[in-house]
Amino acid sequence: MSQSHAGVLHEYLTAFEFNPNPQKQHSLLFVGGLTDGLLTVPYVSALAKAFESTEWTVFNVLLSSSYLGWGVESLDKDVTEIAQCVNFVRGLKPQGKIVLMGHSTGSQDVLHYLHSPNPLPGQESARPVLDGAIMQAPVSDREHILHLANSNQEVRGAYEQLVNFARAQAPQSLLPLNLTAVVGWPDNTGISCRRFLSLASPDSPEKPAEDDLFSSDLKDQRLKETLGRLRRGGW
Fold first, then answer.
1. What is the pTM of this model?
2. pLDDT tens digit sequence for 81-92
3. Fewer CB near the terminus (10 Å): N or C of the chain?
4. CA 176 to CA 190: how far, in whole Å?
5. 220: three-class secondary structure by DSSP
6. Is 3.40.50.1820 the CATH number for 7-138?
7. 221 burial via Cβ count (<10 Å: 0-12, 13-18, 19+)
8. Residue extents of the structural domains in the chain
């Protein structure tokens, strides 16, 4: 039987606050990786329990890209929704600190929140400042895909077909599920051409796509534009 948790389900979008207490003024906002959603990362509830005797509370943030949504969403959409959550929590706890934590591919959301233009192109509202950020187990989706492709001829063939298909179709067109399943993604998840090219980033390292933030072969200029923009004192 699944374990139950005492808490409050906040909207909108959705953020689950563990063990709410008006005396707890500081907040850790947790964002999972690809396919993650509410309570899918086991250590989050353990982290909330460890915080019980502190001034900190934990929010598990649910985005449009959670669960199966990651295949058709973007980092821009994610950080826009995270900014809404930060503003919401700031309204609940105006005197408290807010730290954003990303797990696995969720780390891309954290770094994108910190380094991308503020406000994003086409938006009027700037993202609110954070008091801290944590990138836990950041990974390179591109290097993972290439590792699979270089280890298996069938995966290599599917990967090359996907790259050609994605480049030829409209950005929001969906890729063939039989091919995306071969490269290791769930066979029940629609993936747009735009998101595939962002995650696979076939023109890297010379021209890294939006999601290619943690690959080991990124050029110095890319690192300056991303990690190099981080500074102390809030973002």
1. 0.92
2. 999 999 999 999
3. N
4. 8
5. helix
6. yes
7. exposed
8. 7-138, 141-212
